[in-house]
Predict the 3D structure of the following.
Amino acid sequence: MKLIDIKSMTFDEIKEDFKNFKIESYRASQVYRWIIGGAESFDAMTNVAKSMRKGLSEKYFIPTVLIEKKSISKDNTIKYLFKMFDGNLVESVLMKYKHGYSMCISTQVGCKMGCSFCVTGKSGFIRNLCASEMILQIEKAQKDNNIKISNIVLMGMGEPLDNYENVLKFLKLVSDPNGLGIGLRHISLSTCGIVDKIYDLAEKKLQLTLSVSLHAPNDKLRSSMMKINRRWGIKDLIDACRYYILKTNRRISFEYIMIENVNDTKECALELAKLLKGMLCHVNLIPLNESDANAMIKSNINRVYTFKNTLENKGINATIRRTLGEDIEAACGLLRSRTQKETEDLP
Ligand code: SAH
Ligand code: SF4
């Protein structure tokens, strides 16, 4: 029988499952408490009878992850390379802000979307992460630093809305006050624009922040940078965003990478302002993080400020994102999934 990942289950699911297996219901709360407390095996559950522990380990397993590598930046940002139970590797980034710790976690090993500017996209797609593997990235970083993380961004490797069911499960687990207890208001989910899932998410009326990677104000430019735009163009995407705002009353954050002479001109700023006019939104300008995976150049900072001013003069709220962890390749779009071999070769 294939073992079930019990750490990806909510308390209600465990209760229901135990009922089917004719296990007394109070055992569900006992076991759940151990799982959210970080137990790595059923044998650690000392208040559960030995025979019961054996029975559980024949039906379920508790996934674990290992810290394969840790890099610390000059600004104290920490990049982790985590090894999953099947040997796959993902990166996550822990950042310290004035208001506390924020962690950028991965949702997939690799990514299918193949955006031209993104290193993760270049390595292709290996598999989805399950909810427990997203939780474990946070638990491991907390334990490693003896800290409590207060904010989460789903902006690491992968496209969260392409792993929709597992991400929804993760959101339930991470916000459980008995578990990590990180409320949805402290979580941002970033998407390249999977329109059907944005509509679905809107219906759920969750209190999380939706970030949409827009990066261009028209279809010609956006399709040249992001393959997803050939499936859902800008009109479809903006319609979905308007619907999301209508349903949730939450402000959307549009991410806009700035690439010199590609999407940072005055015309682009005016076109963008027109596109977003009247929307409950905010534009986050991100100077491109350059890498050897693409030949693009980041916009000069003066051009970024000019772009910001043009937007603001047209009534669009805009900020410039501070980049953390540049020296350890922890910045947006630079995370990659490494093969085990590559990692073993590292000094
Ligand atoms: N797949 C999701 C979330 C992960 S990417 C998405 O695309 O939104 C997180 C953010 O990093 C996105 O806004 C993405 O567009 C941005 N990004 C990707 N490559 C980048 C680069 N080279 N420089 C700056 N930001 C980048
Ligand atoms: Fe995937 Fe996001 Fe990178 Fe695009 S930017 S390839 S969607 S991770």
About this structure: Residues 111, 113-115, 118, 120-121, 158-159, 192, 213, 333 surround iron/sulfur cluster (ligand 2) (CB under 6 Å). Confidence is low (pLDDT under 50) at residues 339-347. The radius of gyration is 21 Å.
